Amino acid sequence: MNQLTALILATLSTSTLASNTQWELLTDTQLNGVLDSSTSQLQTLTLTTYANQFNAVNNASPDASVIQGEFELPNTFELGSGVVQRIQFTIANEGKRVYFLGQGSAQQGYRGTWYGPNNDAGDFRLDTKSAEVSVPVNCAQILSENPEALSGVYTIDPDGAGAHAQFEAYCDMETDEGGWTLIGTYSKSEPGGKQYISDYSPQPDTTPTNPTATGLYQGSLGAFRDIREQVACDFASCRNAYQTAMSEAELDMVRYTWGYLDQQEKQKNTPLPDCRATYQVTGTAFTHCLINTDRNNTNVVGWQRDIHAGNHSCWLAHGVYRPTSLGSSRCSYLAQANGTRWGLLWAR
């Protein structure tokens, strides 16, 4: 009985067409009507059903045993309270055959007993296995799998099994071909500047319009390739900086600029990525995303030293020398942040 463990099945088919499905079977070595977890064993098999009959394959060792059985037809009969169905099957291995007889339903699972060739016996349970729900890694995956997906809040998990848990994020499914994940929000009411990106809450706001929470996703950016930073946002527009087809290291550098001490330290060895003021790849490329080379790292937080014509002083917040300044400035020369604009960071 040491080969019996878990069978997996999504549904039982009464069609005459063959159907491959999965089940979970749990067995023990004590025939007392109760499954004993200390002696129970699992095995994964794939079932092929033809009407009410089925064959099964042990996924761990497909050639080790022959498994055959059937479900009762018609599908139901009355037994006590409720409608149940009988099931019987055998497992033959190395010339020995084990018999299973039970009852239940596809929805509730099957329970019964097994008997072996050496006067051995035990209990078994046969259940459908719940399908694992796969959490998308980003908004681009959601849009790819459902081109009709609308902008809104979705659950994503960019780093999969990594340290950062899945979270709710706002997805922009319309702008610049859609599929953008909001990974950073800086509220217009947030004072001062952040020294390190770890100073942010790891949960960005879930609205891009006047966010009230300041947060920055802290996990791996390996699931993304494009970036869009927006500062000095109001209800009408934002100042934009774009870059596409980026490496994870380049994406990390853009995120590090949201902490002005992180930016100073990281920029010593890794230059800031180039950027464009428009999404179109034919737009002017700004080296290191600077309109000139006089970036003052202690005063400016953000990727831009405003690359937009007529202005060159955009930031999310001032550094520690002016901790009472709020939000993003209006992107005019020497303007102070005055708590009227907010900042956003998107990845795709």
TrEMBL record:
SUPFAM superfamilies noted in UniProt: Fibrinogen C-terminal domain-like
Gene3D superfamilies reported in the protein's UniProt record: Gamma Fibrinogen, chain A, domain 1
Keywords recorded for this protein, A-Z: Calcium, Disulfide bond, Lectin, Metal-binding, Signal
Cleaved signal peptide residues: 1-18
A GO molecular-function annotation: metal ion binding
PROSITE patterns assigned: FIBRINOGEN_C_2
CC per GO annotation: extracellular space
Claim: Lipid metabolism is one of the keywords in the record: no
Coiled coil (residue ranges): none
Boundaries of every Fibrinogen C-terminal domain copy: 130-183
Pfam families reported for this sequence: Fibrinogen_C
Protein name, as recorded: Fibrinogen C-terminal domain-containing protein
